[in-house]
Amino acid sequence: MIKKMLKSDDFKLKNCINYIFVAAATVIFAILNSTGGLKTSYANLLVQIGYSIILAVSLNLVVGFLGELSLGHAGFMCIGAYIGTFISIQLNTVIDSKVICLIISMLCGGILAAFFGFLVGLPALRLKGDYLAIVTLAFGEIVRTVLKNLPWFGKAMGMTTGAVKFTKKDAPLFIVVFITVIIVLFLVQSLVRSKHGRAITAIRDNEIAAKAMGINVTFYKLFVFVFAAFFAGVAGVFYGHYTTPVMYTFFSYNYSIEILVMVVLGGMGSINGSIIAATLITIINTMLQKYLPGELAALKFLIYALILIGLVIFNNAPKLAAFKEAVSFKALLAKLTAKKRRPEDILNDPAHWDKIPTKIRMDEVLSTDIQPGNEYVPDKPEKGGK
Amino acid sequence: MSDVVLRTENLGISFGGLKAVQDVNLEVKKKQLYGLVGPNGAGKTTIFNLLTGVYQPTTGKFYLNGEELNGKTQEQINRKGIARTFQNIRLFNNMSVIRNVLVGLHNQPEFKCSPVSSILRLPTHYKTEEAMRERAKEILRIVDLEDERNNLACNLPYGKQRKLEIARALATNPKLLLLDEPAAGMNPHETEDLMNIVRKIRDDYDMTILLIEHDMKFVSGLCDEVTVLNFGTVLAQGETNEALNDPEVIKAYIGG
Amino acid sequence: MKKVLALILVAVLCLGCLAACGGTGDDTTTTTNGTTENNANAAYDLTKVGEYTANNTEFVIGATGPLTGDAASYGISVQQGAQLAIDEINAAGGLNGIKFKFDMKDDKATAADASTGYDALYEAGMQVSLGSVTSGSAESFATRAAEDEVFALTPSASADPVINASNYSFRVCFGDPDNGILSAEKLAKEYKNIGAIYDSSDPYSTGIYDAFKAKMKELGVTYLEQSFDAENNRDFSTQIEALKDCDVIFLPIYYTEAGLIAKTCVAKGCDAFLFGCDGLDGVAAQIDSTVTNKISYITPFDVNSEDEKVSAFVKAYEAKYNAKPDQFAADGYDAVYAIFEAMKALGVENVKVDPAELGKALVSVFTADTFAYGGVTGNMKWIASGACNKEPIIVEIN
Amino acid sequence: MSILFDGLSLGAIYALIALGYTMVYGIAKMLNFAHGDIIMVGAYAFYVALISSGHMALGIVVAVIFCTVMGMVVEKVAYKPLRGASPLAVLITAIGVSYLLQSISQLVFGADPKVVTIPSLGTVSLLGASISVSSIITLLIGAVIMAGLTVFVKKTRTGRAMVAVSEDKGAAMLMGINVDKIITITFAIGSALAACASVFYLMQIPSVEPTLGSMPGIKAFTAAVIGGIGSIPGAMIGGVLLGVIEKICLSIPVLSPYTTAVEFSLLIVILLVRPIGILGKKRREKV
Questions:
Q1: Which chains pack against C, by 3+ Cβ pairs within 8 A?
Q2: Which CATH superfamily is domain C42-174+308-392 in?
Q3: CA–CA separation, C310 and A105 (whole Å)
Q4: Is residue A308 less than 8 Å (CB to CB) from chain D?
Q5: Interchain contact B40–D (C-beta under 8 A)
Q6: Using CA atoms, how far apart are residues C250 and C253, in angstroms rounded to an integer?
Q7: CB within 8 A of D80, min separation 6: which ones?
């Protein structure tokens, strides 16, 4: 049995490289932190990177693997941040340890967000493409509007989370976040690299064929929405323990879009891509804030917008494809090492899991096609069978 | 009667007043190779869509091994034992060949593995994965695609894509296999090859096969019985050569 | 491709490590044995050099505020007001010959960005701060600042959680509940048909309005209530229609929306008296001659005041920015001067002074009975909670 | 009654914006998230023209011309290279363009809201409620534009080419239609509509700031989806419906803070009942 396990793709280096890196980063930064060598700003940046990774990876599950466009991810995060942290604050009056409060509230916030994920998943069964996108966006805004008007959460002022916020004196939050990132990666990759992940990508590739193969489309769509919402909720709880107050303004659809940008730039269906994009975008945002003096703050958006447009055009423009191939890293490498990898070597590698889904054509995500089964109504049955 | 796998009773559907299929009565027996022929627009694919739950019939009923399947969803019908291929190929294009077949194996009881055990990587997961892979290779061997198993489905040539669709449908372990123009776009050599494969499937798996085909050589060389459709109604039915030589059929085809 | 990605990840992480290590490379133990001032209060030591301030050549005042997004105009006003004060102080020779530097980071009015903004500022050598401009960000900023014992004097964040967040958090503006109670008392006494419109999406507005509502209930006065959500509604016809027959409409909101409400009043033929709080300052620029409604608001700052200090400030501001200052600018200006005065009272001479020591010292100054500062927004005195006492004036337009 | 009128006039603005949205969507099949920001640009153009010349009419002309040109430029620079790429990539680019326009206008005009003085056209009373003339004009113009667009699409060569492109880009190309040109024209028309919308927006809400576009943009998007995205009369119905619902909610003090939630819930309910919006076109996937 163990031999089988070790033989499986899970233990190939390329499939666990991301664990290794995240784990290494956690250890290195933890050591640095314990020796006092880590500035607070970097510790905080790490927390932001951590929850961004969780958000991006979980959204990738919905957009990249299931192929449904969701613009409401910040809404799930909002639920986790508000309700999860609220629970944590209540717990804090009984339990002294912030870490334990955090872990319990993480589960609570995640489960609550997952419940809402289920509710949002229901329309996903009937709607596709832009229609689903606007419904998820609407959901995010509804959550935000309701939460900001409830007196328990401090109304428009937001909920003060000072009681459970991790300060310098507490255990470094980023370690908890990064350990969670590893767990999330494990859970998400395990799902993706299993028969269930295959079923999910099958639905994305061709829903009609998936149905004809007996795949329970309803179950898997709901499952993915619930799964992804859970992690977004967890990320929200981290947010609540990282900063105070938890304010509704943060969770607008603009933030959902920012997460989507991470997913798209990282590559649809590429988990490592999401990790890298989430890390880089968070760093870029912080750096732009840090180094642009007040008067030039408006430039930040300008630069961000230009980078965004430039990157997307560079990555996606059909006309640039040939140019990119000519200058790509692979082409250069091939030129340098005259010895070419035989195609069979690549092909016979059964671990093409990650690579293959990135080939998804994104127009399959954004199409207005109405689901089969709803697209027309046949005439009423004629009486008498004639 | 027990050897009748598929039976339809006055099966029909109309779209907004247009009767696409009307009063179709089929009886397909076990291990039979049954052909469904007719000019374009005769309603052949519509019948397939009715039988697989894509459309719900407006009249009539159909039974698989005596069990009525009206009103079931596509997923349910597949699990009851009807699998199909598509006229316009519908593979999972961004997945490798073997993964396409693995998706077909998804619901087989012997490969049961709950999402929880997969996500938590319990031993069941590894066991089923391994077993599924073996079975998938076996199935690919039948259609001569084992060597292509790690290629992307969309990179296969047309003929192989058709064969892969058959393999994928076969993977769902059906009692009845519906093939929608399996030889379309193939050259004579490939068609010959395909005929052998279809026969092999029937013999090795005791499979009952209902197929739509325009290639008359293919049909007459393969099918035991055919139903000829025209404008949604049955024109002729019976033993292959007999039905195809029916004067009504020749009239419909030649247009005389 | 994956290897490339992996390489990039490595590179990023390494860079992160290097940066993190580099930051602490500074030898922080070297102290300049300059003048040692023996202050009576031994709780703080103004000669101590801070961890990140060892390279300072100027006193660094930091702040965050919304410089982009919906609330950008408020942040920019504060930034300009504060910068003007800094320029004036520096032109006059600074403090004991040491100049000041002001740095404001954009926080888009979000708590998370205020926190990262704080980190950036603190590690760039910030010694004292103006907190943040909007309430949520200011609470976030103050909470972070409390960890490092950095003094934060927010110009405009009026919600109570901001000053409650830490002992080092003070404010220049009025508190929201005070505004609400004051308005309720005034309106209940002078008017019969009272209406109110508040912004349910804004902490400033809900803060004042909740206090107003409670006070009105206590006074037993009934009134008509309407609300809007500034993020989503900018058309006020329904609200004005409902309050058409009121004598007075209470507007605990900001001037942008108030200007639109005034214009809607004209369109709807409503001639009610519009009454608001300090957020309404600046409304004059948002209305035109068609508006005939009487508008007035409680504010500490009147841009048209005859007061010498105020007119000098307005003149200097106009010369520098080619625009009239609003209350945010005045608050920013006063906040800088208040800190300057307090530092002068402390006689700070060490440009590399540790922020925590300076913070403790400033708290002791601000909470002392003897310390008061007369600025363009009135004469201010602070209490231990961090709230500021100053006389409100009522400004009338039309 | 007056709530209804207020709702109608607000809805008319949403409808005007939604028209542009739905046009661009129908033909280019892209969610133009920057559409709201084109309205903002139009509003600034109108504002500048108005204060420098003082003429309403000139302001409108300048706004329309400026927006049309800008719509075409944006299309050429940002969207055209992505023709044939995935709609999701185009969506992200549109968001980038939206950020870009906002930051540029903040750098040029500053963040503080600018007041636009448009002479009031007065009110008329109707059925016991007063309604402003500008609202009536907005509604009328909206209806006229809608009718004009319908006629344009149905009767002119370019219009029919647009329909062809929206139905099947590849086939249209084979029929000799210059798809690129048609899409550019669509953007030009969509932007011109946005400029008109911006003027009517300013008539009711006379203040311009860099973030002016995001709220009406998202509301109009919602309206377009409610009406059935791609459908011209649908956009009109969706806009008016949304405006009226918003006003009704705002008039009930208890419900008022939750207005946005109610509006979006309405959207979800409508989509659940009719997954393609009120007047959306059904599409069938051939099996």
A1: A, D
A2: Response regulator (3.40.50.2300)
A3: 52
A4: yes
A5: no
A6: 9
A7: D180, D183, D184
- Label the pairing between strands B82-84 and B176-180: parallel
pLDDT of A336 reads 61
ipTM of the complex: 0.89
Q: Which residue of B has its CA nearest to A6?
A: B126
Per-residue pLDDT reduced to its tens digit, C208-265: 999 999 999 999 999 999 999 988 888 888 888 889 889 999 999 998 899 999 988 8
User: In which order are the strands placed within the sheet that holds C59-65?
Assistant: C100-106, C59-65, C128-132, C152-154, C169-171
Q: Look at chain B and report how many structural domains it folds into.
A: 2
Greatest alpha-carbon pair distance for chain B in Å reads 67
pLDDT in tens, D163-182: 888 888 888 888 888 888 99
Q: Which of B10, B78, B118 sits opposite A196 (nearest CB)?
A: B118
Q: How confident is the model at residue A4 (pLDDT cuts 50, 70, 90)?
A: low
- pLDDT beyond 50 at C129: yes
Going from the C-alpha of C110 to that of each of A166, A184, C262, the distances in angstroms are: 18, 27, 29
Query: What would the two tokens of residue C253 be?
Result: 């909101």
Q: Let me know whether B2 and B75 are in one domain.
A: yes
Buried b (16+ CB within 10 A) or exposed e, A26-55: bebbbebbeeebbbbbbbbbbbbbbbbbbb
**Domain check: are B7 and B75 in the same one?**
yes
User: Residue C1: pLDDT band by 50, 70, 90 thresholds?
Assistant: very low
Least Cα separation, residue D266 to chain B (angstroms): 30
CA-CA-CA-CA dihedral for A363, A368, A372, A376, to nearest 10: -160
Same domain, B63 and B26: yes
Q: Which SS3 state, helix, strand or coil, does residue B226 take?
A: strand
Q: Are residues B3 and B46 in the same domain?
A: yes
* Sign of the dihedral through C-alpha B162, B165, B170, B174: negative
The domain over range A2-370 is classified in CATH as 3.40.1620: no
**Which residues of C lie closer than 8 Å to D, measured between beta carbons?**
67-70, 72-73, 75-77, 200, 225-229, 231-235, 237-239, 241-242, 256, 259-260, 263, 266-269, 285-288, 290, 323
- Mean pLDDT, to the nearest integer, of C93-117? 91
Chains C and B contact (Cβ–Cβ under 8 Å for 3 or more pairs): no
What mean pLDDT, rounded, does chain B reach?
89
Task: Note down the domain range covering B101.
Answer: 90-157
Residue boundaries of the structural domains of chain A: 2-370
Mean pLDDT for C37-59 is 75
Q: Which chain D residues contact residue A142 at CB under 8 A?
A: 260-261, 264-265
Given a cut of 90, is residue D72 above it in pLDDT? Answer: yes
Whole-prediction pTM:
0.88
Considering the segment(s) C176-299 as one domain, its CATH architecture is 3-Layer(aba) Sandwich (3.40)
- Beta bridge pairs of residue C353: C49
Burial letters for C243-280: b for 16+ Cβ neighbours within 10 Å, e otherwise? bbebebbbbbbbbbbbbbbbbbbbbbebebbbbbbbbb
Is the previous residue joined to C252 through a cis bond, with omega within 30 degrees of 0? no
Which residue among C68, C260, C290 places its CB closest to the CB of D207? C260
